# Entry
Amino acid sequence: MTDSPALSNEAAMVLGLAGTAMPFARSREEEAERWLRVLRLHGDVSGALQSLGIGEEPIAAPDGSSGNGHDSRQGTEHEVVTSITQSATESAKRRSVQTVGTVDVLIGAMEYYGEDFDRVLKAYGTDRDEVLERVLAESQR
# Structure
């Protein structure tokens, strides 16, 4: 069995920063937005996210498909960060890289939040496919 990829410094920082923001989120959608805000400022994905127009604030209000925006969160901050770290590690393995980067943390967050993350991306004027295409292309440079 191969060793698990190690966390890059940037990925570790993003995981820590996003984890500290979780207690202030009232819903999974708000949690997903906090991950996106941290990722747009740190690591390899920041430039790609900013080039897609992901700024400090969304350009539109989320469509509210997940309820009233106050749906309950599904885990503690520790559980969320642990789940996303595990997904990020699996992403790095699939990509055959030796270090878990912010690309993998983004993929892990997308997997964890699913449609909630998609709604947040839509509010920023983009979607999962466009983000992944740009982020993965830039990570291969």
